[in-house]
Amino acid sequence: MSGQPGRAYACRVVQILLVEDEPLIASFVSRGLRAEGYSTAVAGSGDDALMELEARAWDLVVLDLKLPGVDGFGVLARAVEADPPVPVLVLSAQNGVATKVAALDAGASDYLAKPFSFDELLARVRACVRRRARAGPAAAAHPLELDLRSRRITRRDGGRVQLSERECALLEYLLRTPEEVVSRQRILNAVWDYQFDPRSNVVDVCIARLRRKLETEAVIETVRGGGYRLVPC
Ligand code: CA
User: Fold this and answer.
1) Which of 34, 178, 218, 232 supports an S-S bond with 142, CB 3.0-4.6 Å?
2) pLDDT digits over 142-152, tens only?
3) 53-78, pLDDT tens digit by residue?
């Protein structure tokens, strides 16, 4: 079933790739977006951004232009060429008209100059996501909805299920890697955020709780010797 877009989770958690080499700005923007319920990952260089674009489907890229390695225009070109193209909101200290025109002509959806107001960034992010939702094939996607702010799943039948913080983080992680086998160790590193004893069964326990809560919405398969994989029912 892998590779069939209609079966994949074009999940309702909006996934934003933030490409920013200034750690303070990256952390500020990332925390702000997460507080609004978006799922974010940070790439600190153009090369990292290209890898992230290759690895996963993103709903939006928030892109700095001056980056170590491949610059923002290189990342922009790759995002625009992707299938489907990923919308790009440029967030750059370069506020000259020529740069703005060049970025928009190269396919950027929007351009916001630094310094910026966070409220304006959020409004522009919402606008990009709305346009994407109208254009994309999301209606065919699996209906599992996860609200990161309330940590609730909305099921097909309209029922709501409350998740704990850890269950929510684990499901968010699995939704990012749909139908891919992820090892216990990767889950530990990503969700527990520190090096945990790999013999610990915290992952298995959390998976078991999540399975019960997901019920008919999705299945978390155990892949022998490999790890876990989230597949739609
Ligand atoms: Ca920069």
Assistant:
1) 232
2) 457 788 888 88
3) 998 889 999 999 999 999 999 999 99
Q: Is the pLDDT of residue 12 over 70?
A: no
Which residues place a Cβ less than 5 A from the ion ligand 1?
21, 64, 66
* Sign of the dihedral through C-alpha 195, 196, 199, 204: negative
Ligand 1 mean position, distance from CA 28 (Å)? 14
Q: What is the domain-level CATH number for residue 84? A: 3.40.50.2300
Which two structure tokens, joined as six digits, stand for 162?
């409350």
Q: Find the distance separating the first CA and the last CA of the chain, reported in whole Å.
A: 11
DSSP state of 7: G
**Higher confidence at residue 2 or residue 146?**
146
The tally of domains found in the chain comes to 2
Q: How far is the CA of 132 from the centre of ligand 1 (A)?
A: 26
**Full-model pTM:** 0.65
| 81 and 120 within one domain | yes
CA 224 to ligand 1 centroid distance, Å: 43
